[in-house]
Amino acid sequence: QVQVVESGGGSVQAGGSLRLSCAASGSISNIIAMGWYRQVPGKQRELVASVTSYGSTAYADSVKGRFTISRDNAKNTVILQMNSLTPEDTAVYYCKVQLRRYITIDDYWGQGTQVTVSS
Fold first, then answer.
1. 4, 18, 40, 48: least surrounded by Cβ within 10 Å?
2. What span, in angstroms and rounded, lies between the C-alpha atoms of 10 and 4?
3. Alpha-carbon distance 118 to 106, whole Å?
4. Tens-digit pLDDT profile for residues 47-106
């Protein structure tokens, strides 16, 4: 069993900041990567930012320079620091943990946390 728990969503005015946290627990002996995705109604879930176990990061073009992802391997947590937020960042944000099993790579998702940015 793998548990993925997000926290830190909420409402903020444009230009403000929020910090999302995600903690993974359970059978997580081989994490490949952790990341944040977001989804708005009627659209596909999209990558926001991810970080591998080696520290390599990837960001959506729309958040580069504003969002920063960081990971604590010892605690199996990942943090998304979001600055200069705009109404276009409003979405449900999901944390994904990617694990290497014996012959497969499995993805585990959190329940999602709402981020609302008002103009």
1. 40
2. 18
3. 36
4. 999 999 999 999 999 999 999 999 988 899 999 999 999 999 999 999 999 999 888 999
Could you give the C-alpha distances from 50 to 55, 81, 82, in angstroms and in order? Answer: 9, 12, 14
Rg value, the chain, Cα: 14
Concatenated DSSP letters of 69-91 = EEEETTTTEEEEEE-S--GGG-E
Q: How confident is the model at residue 1 (pLDDT cuts 50, 70, 90)?
A: confident
- HSE value, Cβ hemisphere, 13 Å, CA-based, for 16: 15
Q: How far apart are CA 85 and CA 97, in angstroms?
A: 24
Burial of 85 (0-12, 13-18, 19+ CB in 10 A): buried
**What is d(CA 33, CA 113) in angstroms, rounded to the nearest whole number?**
20
* Helix or strand run (H / E) with residue 26: strand 18-26
